[in-house]
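To the team - iron/sulfur cluster complex, inputs and output below.
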Amino acid sequence: MTGPGRPKAPWYLEGIRFECRRCHACCRARGEYVFVYIEDAEVAPIAKALGISPQRFLEEFCTTHEGERVLRFETELCPLHDGEGCRAHPFKPVQCRTWPFWPENLESRRAWEEKVASFCPGAGKGRLWSFAEIVAQAREMAESSGETWNP
Ligand code: SF4
Ligand code: SF4
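Output:
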């Protein structure tokens, strides 16, 4: 029961079904959103996965946006995508590992529909992610940018 002073239960309390269908739509630029952020700790593992030095990875694949390190998109497809899949796998950047359970996508059912289900064919399909799993993913995403998050 909800009411004044009683917080509304998160809409995903019973979990969310999601299973990646490997369509790679989330590895493509969507409108103005083309940013894949790379944390300091992610540089060396990703470079290793690519078989190049960290310095070369920074020079060839990265640029900055508003002071943050991001991948440099030269086409609409992520530069770490080889047409088959992510070349950084299993060391994908945190935002890719935690997708689609980002805090902003969980704000409301409507946000989920607009920001995820509208283009991700894995949304609402396959495995049921529990509330605890979803919260853990969203927290990891928030903490990667120094923020705290609670459902
Ligand atoms: S858009 Fe969804 S189904 Fe397609 S690759 Fe991304 S997570 Fe997987
Ligand atoms: S880093 Fe990998 S998973 Fe993330 S957008 Fe690029 S290709 Fe996709």
